[in-house]
Amino acid sequence: MTSYLxxxxxxxxxxxxxxxxxxxxxxxxxxxxxxQQNDEDHNDISHIDHGVTQxxxxxxxxxxxxxxxxxxxxSGPDYAVIAADTRLSSGYEILSRNxxxxxxxxxxxVLASAGCKTDIDQLRSVLDIRMKQYRQNHRKEMTVTSVxxxxxxxxxxxxxxxxxxxxxxxxxxxxxxxxxxxxDAIGSFERTPFSxxxxxxxxxxxxxxxxxxxxxxxxxxxxxxxxxxxxIVKDAFVTAGERDIYTGDAVEIMIxxxxxxxxxxxxxxxx
Length: 271
Prior knowledge:
Layout: H1 4-13, E1 17-24, E2 27-34, H2 39-43, E3 70-75, E4 80-85, E5 88-90, E6 93-96, E7 102-106, E8 109-115, H3 117-138, H4 144-157, E9 165-172, E10 178-183, E11 189-192, E12 194-198, H5 201-211, H6 226-243, E13 250-257, E14 260-267
Antiparallel strand pairs: 1-2, 3-4, 3-12, 4-13, 5-6, 7-8, 8-9, 9-10, 10-11, 13-14
């Protein structure tokens, strides 16, 4: 079999113009070639184009950035607990350790969002404007069920260029019962006993299935007081922080009752 070196030498001996022999079942054939480089050209990298003049590389751009974070919300008989960590990051860089992901829309309703910080801020601004319009027109606060529907409509309106925001809504409804609503990116939502979103969602959902929804357990189910749910949330975020680099620093916890919202903060590891 003819080696590449022997072919190269043969081409140079014939002034760079020759033909490479090709062996086939139908006999000998040849392919015309032209060889014009010398030994110095093989070691010279100056001829390499870096996408400036001849073949530009594809430049990709994304308007979104995932800034991490984890949220969770749990509904009770007369309360709702909602929590989120305070770390803001981008890639492997921590941008801030004290950024809230919770936003109170009414004295009985709180929105928790994880995802792109700029989209979350824009979504909050739109919701605040609509809440003020409702308050001025009707002289009362919007109920949590109405807020849930408004949020779904707002997200669906942007379905072709959606907010990069993964939302959980929690509050107390007009009957005084805890309510939690889970959303996808384009506004589809449902009322659930609990919900979680963000980078640590996969670590919290199995725990909540067992502790809150009481799935795959044989012991008797009981109603959990708000204080016990808060402790469960703390343990859940400690667990998520051990496995998820985007969750950490602190967890902000809000307890929503009919008479208002109380807030507490629990420190997590800062690495």
